Amino acid sequence: MVMGAVRLVAGVGVNDADYKVTSYEGRCQSMCPFYKVWSGMIKRCYSKVHQAQRPTYIGCSVCSEWLTFSNFKAWMEKQDWHGKHLDKDLLTPGNRVYAPEFCVFVDAMTNSFTIDSGASRGDCPLGVSFHKASGRYAAYCNNPFSARKVHLGLYDDMDAAHFAWKKKKHELSCVLSEMQSDQRVADALKGRYL
Fold this sequence. Notes:
Helices cover 36% and strands 23% of the residues. By secondary structure, it is an alpha+beta fold.
């Protein structure tokens, strides 16, 4: 260990790196990419400050193996991670545990496409909002290729509007699945909105 001491991240993550994970050149800070992902994961699950800003992470945890930096780094080195985000619930929707069997790296487009925005959605199901002017339910779907919200129509009930959203989401996820380098991600996208 550098400096001879183990440092904790968010009170639980053991930084056992045998090298400096951050360096400074003037005012610029450089961080080991493995440490950056690992410490971000630990903070999302265990930092009260982070959870106050992003309460959707309350109740999430990290498997005991990954509480030690070197174990996570060894796993990450074997993944296709460059330019991608760590995802814990694409393979298993609703998963709340960061662990090797649940996690994959996904590109930014896939990551934003699969976020459900539950906290900002209100009482309506995914892809649905109440349209006051018509007294009906509007269905919308974010298109990852155009980066635009697509209006899918107005419906008399929430279920019909949600079905329209789900149909479009499945169509887009199948196209997105063809762009994936990780077959687990491709398969998860194909089956996610059936």
